[in-house]
Amino acid sequence: MENPSTGLARFLPLSLQGKLAWWLAVLFLLYQFNIQTTYSVINPHVQHTLALSLSQVTLAASAYNWVYAVCQTMSGSFLDKYGTRRTLLLPIALVVAGVFCYARADSFIELLAAQVLLAVGASVSFVSAGFIGGVWFGQKKYGLLFGYVQALAGLSSALSITFIKQAVEQAGWRSVLLLAGCAGLILYLLFLMLFRDPPPHYSDFSSGGSGKLLDDLLQIVTRHRDILLLGLWGGIAFGSQLALGVVWVPKIAAWQGQDTATGGYAVAALWLGLGVGALFWDRLGYHRAQKKGIISLGFAVMIVSLALMLLPLGQGQYWLIVLSFVFGFGNGVHMLAFSCAADKVPSSILGSASALINAAFFIIGGVLISLPSLLVEYTGTGMQTALFSLVLALGLAQCLVLTVDAATRPPSTPGPTTSAR
């Protein structure tokens, strides 16, 4: 791990250094998460400007998720071996570069290239935010801080999406992305000056994994196979959220005869629900050894709310907004996958295990984003019927949760000897 004295933060008390490091990592996560959310607002404008088909619009979103997922599998091992500062500096620069390329894109190929840059850089953001919570505050808070991170990401997207929509209408999508790129440069400078890793053995969290991708993944696959199941049901849950939030909720609003403003409010409600739900379900399940019942309840909320959203009940614009919030709230239960992982694997490979789970989230998310449009384009299925494929996927995940051991907490280990509270 890098010398922890790096950065101006070394002049602060250790308790403040830990909080500053965590908040800087969270800011990076919120930055890239809001860039991704922006795609749900600007994709109609991008589609018109670049003359793209619906399949190309969804493919660009899916490509981001697939590249993100592939790179995600390596990020955990880098964190385990090199620490967060050395791992994060290049990815932040890549995200900022991707934003500027995004703003300058004039063709589908250039849009894909920008999405690849964004995905490579963003792939470490989520896992590193949770990882930093572990190395500074101890393994007992690892899963809990993941819930806080997702809650902040959801709330941030919900609050920013209306502002982004208004900015795009007034200044154009390219200008908004250029401004976002400038904000990213400021974030990079703050991270360079203020971020640091903790001193060795600061908490009970061991980041001393092999740092070798194949070794860590082999250990997970052979000794901790439940991690793959956590990634599967969690990926279907979060993938459905991505599919709705990035592409499909605005199109559902249009299909139901609602205006674009309603679609924007519904997307905001979806992410707001996720933020509130991630915090609620994470706190509810944090101290429970067996989380199966809680996870099943969350899936039931998602299935019912999405089915009601797709049925032609004619309840008006507020019905879609309320159901979007309810779906997002239920979707927050997917955060328990990380708490389950913290219960099952040693901290030395927890970064790799979390990266593998989050990679599964985005691989499945990429599939679920494109699935409805492929059904519409190649089978002639109507949009309503095609979107019910997401309901079916959630039902399959619900069955998986009911048939596997969601999590069983091992004998408790001593808490951290030092805490940055």
Automatic annotation (TrEMBL):
<dbReference type="InterPro" id="IPR011701">
    <property type="entry name" value="MFS"/>
</dbReference>
<feature type="transmembrane region" description="Helical">
    <location>
        <begin position="349"/>
        <end position="371"/>
    </location>
</feature>
<dbReference type="InterPro" id="IPR050189">
    <property type="entry name" value="MFS_Efflux_Transporters"/>
</dbReference>
<feature type="transmembrane region" description="Helical">
    <location>
        <begin position="227"/>
        <end position="249"/>
    </location>
</feature>
<feature type="domain" description="Major facilitator superfamily (MFS) profile">
    <location>
        <begin position="20"/>
        <end position="407"/>
    </location>
</feature>
<feature type="transmembrane region" description="Helical">
    <location>
        <begin position="293"/>
        <end position="311"/>
    </location>
</feature>
<dbReference type="Pfam" id="PF07690">
    <property type="entry name" value="MFS_1"/>
</dbReference>
<feature type="transmembrane region" description="Helical">
    <location>
        <begin position="383"/>
        <end position="404"/>
    </location>
</feature>
<feature type="transmembrane region" description="Helical">
    <location>
        <begin position="176"/>
        <end position="195"/>
    </location>
</feature>
<keyword id="KW-1133">Transmembrane helix</keyword>
<keyword id="KW-0472">Membrane</keyword>
<protein>
    <submittedName>
        <fullName>MFS transporter</fullName>
    </submittedName>
</protein>
<feature type="transmembrane region" description="Helical">
    <location>
        <begin position="144"/>
        <end position="164"/>
    </location>
</feature>
<feature type="transmembrane region" description="Helical">
    <location>
        <begin position="88"/>
        <end position="105"/>
    </location>
</feature>
<feature type="transmembrane region" description="Helical">
    <location>
        <begin position="261"/>
        <end position="281"/>
    </location>
</feature>
<feature type="transmembrane region" description="Helical">
    <location>
        <begin position="317"/>
        <end position="337"/>
    </location>
</feature>
<keyword id="KW-0812">Transmembrane</keyword>
<keyword id="KW-1003">Cell membrane</keyword>
<dbReference type="GO" id="GO:0022857">
    <property type="term" value="F:transmembrane transporter activity"/>
</dbReference>
<dbReference type="InterPro" id="IPR020846">
    <property type="entry name" value="MFS_dom"/>
</dbReference>
<dbReference type="InterPro" id="IPR036259">
    <property type="entry name" value="MFS_trans_sf"/>
</dbReference>
<feature type="transmembrane region" description="Helical">
    <location>
        <begin position="111"/>
        <end position="137"/>
    </location>
</feature>
<feature type="transmembrane region" description="Helical">
    <location>
        <begin position="20"/>
        <end position="42"/>
    </location>
</feature>
<dbReference type="GO" id="GO:0005886">
    <property type="term" value="C:plasma membrane"/>
</dbReference>
